[in-house]
Amino acid sequence: MADEDKSKKLWGGRFTADLAAPALDFTESIAADSRMIAEDIWGSQAHAIMLAHTQIISEEDLREILYWLEHARTEYGAGRLQLRPELEDVHMNVEVFVREGAGPEIGGRLHTARSRNDQVVTDARMHLRTRLLDIGEALAALQEVLLEQASQHTETVMPGYTHTQHAQPISAGFWLSAYASMFQRDQQRLAAAYERTNLCPLGAAAIAGTSFPIDRELTARLLGFDGLVPHALDAVGSRDFMAEALSALAILATNLSRLAEELVLFSTYEYGMLELPDAYASGSSIMPQKKNPCIAELTRARTGAVIGRLVQILTMLKAVPGGYNRDLQEDKPPLWDALDTVDGILRVFTPMLAGTSLNTERMEQLVGANFAAATELANFLVRERGLPFRTCHEIVGGLVATLISEGKTLDDYERVQQLLAEAGEELTVEEITQIVDPTACLHRQVSLGSTHPQQVGAIIENLQTAVAEIRQQLTAARNQIKHARHHTDDIIQHVLASSPLSECEM
Ligand code: ARG
């Protein structure tokens, strides 16, 4: 067989036949891999530079290899690099591109001291890290909108719910900032997943490392990683960093879905506490009056898919023996899908919430209608009359039962006064008015983290600071990746200009 033919065949030596068409269809991973073309080219550039730096290949060979890798990059940038399914995956596509361009004598050296096993997981980590940064930024934007809305409503009363029943008066700012607070933990989980993701497996080769004197630290640096996955067998065979990222995504989606659920409820006629912007709601094809919260509903539904993706990857992993197994190719589709889904939710949620208006009159009407201030009445008796809390609970419980049977509320002050007197507690109407007033209820909550406007204001400020810090960390991480890319580019340009590699800072 001529040398040229050999370079086209994936692994000529051992095989007497090409992969059968149905076998190729079954095994190729072009669809999931096409997202990692840029990463695969960059990874190959860094690897080739390292091979020359450690004198495993010559600088002449490096120049030729880099020339063709750069060519692949421009072709890809111009939308002209189509991955060929017959080459199985992105790694073979990029390598064959170089081999066809540079010829087998030179192009055939690129894969020295490297395996697709370390290559694929390097590409995947590089792609995932960028998507985690995207999601962190999109989530920060959502938090900012929530906190901005919350800061305008620290004095706006609404019913706080437990068991979906009126519980106690809270402020709308308290309600909204609770989500910003939850999302801050999602930020932490995403950051932790990022930390475990941005480590370089390249150089692990197939499983055992390599007998070439490679410099793993150098490739890790050129690719913008924070460090290495040192253990070669672990590096090629483990995907728990993906499960961790998916887990962070599934929890984030779950929190988003809970917000979605409240948006659906609170925008109903029955609650009537908020109005979604027209541009983020749908109509009905038959019922002219309808305005449907479809984005929130789809968020609830798609959260199921994200959770499913987590379960999918865990189930795929749980019986995979150590080292690389082809099962691991099935890691990317669920990961990409979950990233796309969560990213999509965040991108639509932020403008939807920014345009959502609160019906503060309705909130105020609801908060006074159904005994939300009952706990405060009991607390008053504890504080001012020195009674045990359980006794006061009993007194107010009985009072509420009577008011309900009479169709009255706590705002029927005189009746409340009478009923309290019957229980042996004399209060003035002014006192009662003040006790059950929802705004006064907010202002009476003195504990740390309560719904008191000052507490909520402080929480909002702290969260705004925390979100700003997250934004800084995300920007720093992005810059590290950008600088690494520029560093690699500088070396490439230097080598392509036929200057010696020894002049390059590594
Ligand atoms: N397409 C493969 C994947 O996504 C690349 C690694 C293949 N390695 C191998 N030894 N077959 O996992």
Write a structural description:
This protein has 3 domains: 3-112, Fumarase/aspartase (N-terminal domain) (Fumarase C, Chain B, domain 1), CATH 1.10.275; 117-157 and 169-359 and 459-481, Fumarase C, Chain A, domain 2; 374-436. Helix content is 65%, strand content 4%. It has 21 helices and 6 strands. The strands form 3 sheets. The chain has a two-stranded antiparallel sheet with strand order 1-2. α4 (37-53) crosses α10, α5 crosses α6 and α8 runs antiparallel to α21. The chain starts with a helix and ends in a 10-residue tail after the last helix. It binds arginine. Arginine (ARG) binds at residues 29, 89, 116-117, 120, 324, 326, 328-329.
Question: Which structural traits does this protein have?
Answer:
about 500 residues; mainly alpha; Fumarase C, Chain B, domain 1; Fumarase C, Chain A, domain 2; two-stranded parallel ribbon; 6 strands; about 5% strand; disordered N terminus; binds arginine
Averaged pLDDT = 96
Order of helix and strand elements from N to C terminus: HHHHHHHHEEHEHEHHEHHEHHHHHHH
How many domain units? Answer: 3
What are the low-pLDDT stretches, counting only 5+ consecutive residues below 50? Answer: 1-8
CATH topology of the largest domain: Fumarase C, Chain A, domain 2
Cofactors and ligands present? arginine
First-to-last CA distance? 41 Å
Largest sheet properties: 2 strands, antiparallel
| β-strand number | 6
Measured on Cα atoms, how large is the radius of gyration? 31 Å
Counted by DSSP, the helix tally is: 21
Structural class: mainly alpha
The outline comes out as: elongated
CATH-defined superfamily of the largest domain: Fumarase/aspartase (Central domain)
Strand order of the largest sheet: 1-2
What portion of the residues fall into strands of 2 or more residues? under 5%
CATH architecture of the largest domain: Up-down Bundle
What's the CATH C level of the largest domain? Answer: Mainly Alpha
Helix content: 55-70%
